[in-house]
Structures are given as structure tokens and as C-alpha cells.
Design goal:
309 residues, alpha/beta, 7-stranded mixed beta sheet, 24% strand, globular, binds zinc ion
């Protein structure tokens, strides 16, 4: 299985356009001991010929342009991107779909509730279905295992398993609308198994670490894990106000109930933090927080990384 990390930051990217926190300011000044990052985008393939996108980031157009494996190959319109799997209706995960609207045929896999939000409540997404040969929407469900065959590699299918993680829809969905939807369809993690048995765990938004999640992470060879915030009160520390990490659906890295402590015993060969918010001190490679994650065997994803498992 080939895995591309085309972007590794949380929503807003790093630096974020309207943020002058110490991280963003120093990065703009050119003195930051760390790297800029586009918004999280991952692509997977069994053969490097056809690619599956895990979510569709707002930076997707430039992320495709910067990677020749994702460019059209024939002397006509086309794409090696066969499908997109959506883990939620969060804007950071779906806005890139609007950049794929050029009358291209591909599949979008999402829960029924996520599809209702996008297709029934937000008319701009109808641009993906202006002609009959455009996007095919496919229902997925929590706990479902789905085998996906790449058109060019029929004997090397992936098996994807979807894990329900939350009962909250994005804040732009009204409470009334949320009450009409199926709560367990709001946020998924994905475990991808290759034909050879290698397992990738993709969990960029994790509101809480429970026994069910631990079981999935324990069996994974490579983990892409929610690294949004270092501390639960990080936004309050940096901005003087705001919600806690847990209030907006992210387990922080530090603390007694944080990721570092709770996931200490995992056997994965690579444990990688993704979806890193611009306020997170781990972005600064001279901090003790960055050293702490490295010493605990974790890596901080960088744009352009490619893994094979
Ligand atoms: Zn910032």
C-alpha cells in the first residue's frame, strides 16, 4: 500500500491567513524552526496507477498539481483519482470536492447523513452532479467493511473498515437538522487493509480514546492520528479565549488522558500525528514538546511524505 501525505495541517493550514499567533508570525517572518503545512490530505494506492483520496481538503487543487502521480495521463481529460472517502461533513474534509467539479466521473463514499448535509442542504455541491456521468455517491456505514478494487489492479483490493467516533455534526449544521440525522454517522475513522494484510489506521479527528478505538489502533502497522492540539486549553492559552480541544472534538496530545499516555503501548511501526493546528507547539522543532513526541516514538507528518506498507 502506498500512502501520500499531501497536506498535514488542521483546518486553516499553517500559517493560517488570519492568525498572528507566535507560530504563524515567526513562520511568516522566516525565522520559525519548523515547516509550513497545507491542510490535511491523504491519498492511497495499491499500484501507484489509481489513487483513492481520504477526504478532500480545501487545498486539494494545488496538492494535485504538485504531485505528478495524480496528474491526468492521456492527452485528454481524465484522472488517476478514482474515489474519495469522506470521514465527516467538516468543511476541511469536503471543500476540495468543489475543486473536482470539472465534469469528471469518480465515486464519493460517505454516510447517508453526511450526504444529506452536502447534497440536500448545501446546493453548491449539486455542481458535482450537473450531468449524469459525473459523481456517483456511495453509502457507507459505521462498522461496515468494504472491499474496493482499483480498476487497474483487480487482484489487489483494499478492504476499508469504518469506525464511528462521535455523535456531533459540524457546527454549521443546525441542532434541528442534526436531530433528523443519524448521530453515529457524523464522524468516522478508517482502517485500510491491503491484500497483503498491512493495515493503515486513519484517525485525524478523535474526540475520545475508548476500548474500541484502542483495538483498531493496536492492530495497525501505520497510524495517522489526530495531532490537532498539544494541550486541552491550547486555544485559550494562545488566543486568551476559545473552546477547549475536547469541546471541539479533539483529544490533546499531552496530559494524563492525552494521546501520548493513552497510546503508549501500540506496536505500530510508524505512529504519525496529522491534522496539526497552527497553534500547536510541536510545529516548532526546537520546543521540548516536539522532543517529547519524538522520544515517545511519534513523528510529526510533513507535506509530501510518502509511506509504503
Ligand atoms: Zn497561528
Amino acid at each position: 500500500m502506498h500512502v501520500k501525505i499531501l497536506g498535514s495541517a488542521a483546518g486553516g493550514g499553517f500559517p493560517q491567513w488570519n492568525c498572528a499567533c507566535p507560530n504563524c508570525r515567526l513562520l511568516r517572518e522566516g525565522t520559525f524552526p519548523g515547516k509550513a503545512r497545507a491542510q490535511l490530505q491523504v491519498a492511497i494506492s495499491s499500484d501507484r496507477q489509481s489513487w483513492i483520496l481520504l477526504n478532500a481538503s480545501p487545498d486539494l487543487r494545488s496538492q494535485i498539481n504538485q504531485d505528478s502521480d495524480l496528474h491526468p495521463r492521456a492527452a485528454k481529460r481524465g484522472t488517476p483519482i478514482t474515489s474519495v472517502f469522506l470521514t465527516s461533513a467538516e468543511l476541511d474534509q469536503v471543500l476540495g470536492l468543489l475543486s473536482l467539479r470539472e465534469f469528471q466521473s469518480f465515486r464519493v463514499y460517505a454516510t447517508r447523513s453526511v450526504q444529506k448535509i452536502l447534497r440536500e442542504d448545501n446546493s453548491v455541491f449539486r455542481t458535482l452532479n450537473r450531468v449524469g456521468s459525473q459523481v456517483s455517491w456511495v453509502d457507507i456505514e459505521p462498522n461496515q467493511k468494504l472491499t474496493v478494487t482499483n480498476p487497474s489492479a483487480e487482484r489487489e483490493p483494499f478492504q476499508l473498515e469504518f469506525i464511528a467516533l462521535s455523535s456531533h455534526f459540524p457546527t454549521y449544521v443546525s441542532p434541528e437538522r442534526s436531530s433528523q440525522l443519524c448521530a453515529r454517522e457524523s464522524l468516522l475513522g478508517i482502517v485500510v487493509a491491503s491484500a497483503s494484510g498491512a493495515r493503515l489506521a486513519y484517525f485525524p479527528s478523535v474526540p475520545a480514546i475508548d476500548a474500541a478505538l484502542l483495538k483498531h489502533l493496536t492492530s495497525a502497522d501505520v497510524i495517522l492520528m489526530d495531532g490537532t492540539f498539544w494541550a486541552d486549553d491550547e486555544l485559550i492559552q494562545v488566543r486568551g479565549e476559545g473552546p477547549t480541544a475536547r469541546q471541539i472534538g479533539h483529544v490533546p496530545i499531552s496530559g494524563d488522558d492525552g494521546t501520548l499516555k493513552r497510546l503508549k503501548a501500540l506496536r505500530a511501526t510508524r505512529k504519525i500525528f496529522v491534522h496539526i493546528n497552527n497553534t500547536n507547539p510541536v510545529l516548532n522543532e526546537s520546543t521540548q514538546q516536539f522532543r517529547q513526541i519524538c522520544e515517545a516514538g511519534w513523528e510529526l507528518a510533513e507535506d509530501g511524505w510518502e509511506l509504503t506498507l
